[in-house]
Design brief:
By secondary structure, the chain is of the alpha/beta class. It has helices at about 25-40, 55-65, 85-90, 100-115, 140-155, and strands spanning about 10-15, 40-50, 70-75, 95, 125, 130-135. It has one domain: MoaB/Mog-like domain (Molybdenum Cofactor Biosythetic Enzyme, Chain A), CATH 3.40.980. Helix content is about 35%, strand content about 20%. Strands 2-1-3-6-5-4 form a 6-stranded mixed beta sheet, sandwiched between helices.
Length: about 170
Amino acid sequence: MSSQKEFEPLNICVLTVSDTRNLDTDTSGQKLQDLLIAAGHKLHDRNLVIDDIYQIRAVLSNWIIDAQAQVVLITGGTGFAGRDSTVEAVSPLFDKTVVGFGELFRQVSYDEIGTSTIQSRATAGFSNRTLIFCLPGSTGACTTAWEKIIKEQLDSRHRPCNFVGQLKIKTAP
């Protein structure tokens, strides 16, 4: 009997926050969808809302209470522009904050965009055992976050630790 753990596909939701994009022009949301599927996970749901605290919370709250939704990837609204409100919408819903995510994201982004990385308010946390990542709206930033941080932390085989054991357990459909 092997002690090697098997890969556990997760149900992941993707939310794009944008005042200018729609599902046809949403390159960042599409990139996240492509990356999660390529890694062996399942797209549970995908949505796009304008940068409005209450619209973000409405979609997110439905996923937080959804017994099948385990992870949410949010792209957009994490900067300092006037309407950027993803962090304000999501942070109050966290039961626990993954403080190291934003710090590590800015560190790995520094190699790509230099000091402009300080303008990212990328964050992550848990709500009702749903892991939520808030990422910048650029496709490059989403790719960096997935490839350099998120992908390994959502892989049940990654050692010494990963987030899979902290997530909701999927129930039978």
